[in-house]
Structures are given as C-alpha cells and as structure tokens.
C-alpha cells in the first residue's frame, strides 16, 4: 500500500439509525443533500446514504427519493455518489437495484458505485449493562445466490462495486467472486468494524485490521469504518497504513462531540490526516485512485443544463 496516496473520506450519512441521539441525522432528500454538501465542503469525496421516509425516518426504497438526492448532489458537488442497495428484506434482486438502474443510462445522474455486503451475519444487539442480547433471532440473510444475482446485474450494466466485508470470511468470499469474473478486479474494499453493542462484526483492533489487510489483492484500495462504534482510533491506523476512512452519523452518533452534523465529523478526519502528514483526496483524485473513468459532465455543466 502506498501511504502517500491522498486519503479518501466517505461520508456515511444516515444508514438505518434514528434521531434520538443526534437530531442532525437526515431523513428527507433535502436534508440528505444538505449533509452531502457539508461533507463535500469538509473534505469527503464519496457520499453514501439510505432512502428514508422524510417524516418517520423508516427505511424506504422509492426510486423518487433517490433521484431527488442524486439530482441535488450533482447540482451542488462533484462527490462520488454511493447509494445503498435496496433493503435485503426485498426478495427480488430487481427491487434492490431499481433505483441504481433508473439513472444508469444518464451520463450525468448515474451513480458512481454501489455497495455489496459479502455475506450474512447475526444482528442482535448486546446490552453491556444487562449482560443480555436485546434479541436472539435477528439475522441479516445475504445468500451467495443473492450475491451472484446482484453482481451479474452490476456486471451487465458496468457499475463499479464496493466490497463491504464484516469479517475475513467475507473477504475470502468476495475474492472467490473475483475468480468467477463477477466481482471486478478493481474494487474498493470496505472493512466494517463494529462497536460493543454489535459483537457480530470485526473488533476494532490492530490485529483485526491486519487480518483484513492481508486479504486485499495487490493494487486494490481499502477503507475502514465502524458501525455502531467510534471510528476515530481505526481512522488513525488507516491513515498511517495507507487506507481510507468512512465516517458519519449513519454509523454512530458521536455524542462525545455534542451533536455534530456529518460535515463536522468529516472535518475531524480531514484534520487528523493533515496532522499525520497525509493529504485529503478531492473527488477527482478519488476517481483516479480507484481507477474510475472521469465523469462525463462537471457540476457546472449540469447546472447550465438544468437552467
């Protein structure tokens, strides 16, 4: 790994968490676009989000909700757009990818990358005070048949895939799909560490990070994030070891900083990178680092077209 590459920061703005811990977490398309602009101004080059009901915050996969966000981001930033897949509870692959394919033939609005989680896991939360799980039967089921079907769609439509892995076994699974020719050789590996309340994922330790790194094919880039946990310590390791960082209110509320918005969290990682002697990548640099083609339209051209 080349630790002189500029640092790619991905803003992970809302996932499936709610506002009880931080009211800055966005639900509506307008709020999500606001957070995208804040993150971009602070140094993010990739923006990841989930469709949410604008009022209740419940997960929604309406194409219109995604289109409004994509349009707003393209008009105001040059961020790499990275929406979630449709929720796994939707059994049909067509339903999971509909919002991504809806813009795929548009050279301006098409998304830049789509995430694929490479396996299943138990998602019961742990209560450290009660020393009990809050449930005992919650499973995120993501079969290899489902993975194969999603990857076949993405290959057909030439969509860049980020490989999201919650443990080393999922890294090994993803590499099998590379050998099958369904996962491209150029992918961004996203290592998911988890905090105390989510023990099913990888622990945020140096040995845990090294185990992930050992599975990364030569020349590929990797990024570390922490779901339901504070990523800051992992971020310092990733910055010094040549990786990249994901952070946002979708992963953790960061109440030790008060009630920060996503841009303020991105800014903390950017400042850490500068302190540690590493530059922060612009979206254009991120495209180059990830070996993506340049975008067909600049945001100024999109604004002119809209007018």
TrEMBL record:
Classification via InterPro entries: Aldolase_TIM, BKACE, rSAM_sf
PANTHER family documented for this protein: 3-KETO-5-AMINOHEXANOATE CLEAVAGE ENZYME, 3-KETO-5-AMINOHEXANOATE CLEAVAGE ENZYME-RELATED
Keyword annotations from UniProtKB, A to Z: Metal-binding, Transferase, Zinc
GO function term, MF aspect, one: metal ion binding
Keyword presence, Zinc: yes
Protein name stated in the entry: 3-keto-5-aminohexanoate cleavage protein
Entry keyword annotation includes RNA-binding: no
Superkingdom of the source species: Bacteria
UniProt cofactor(s): Zn(2+)
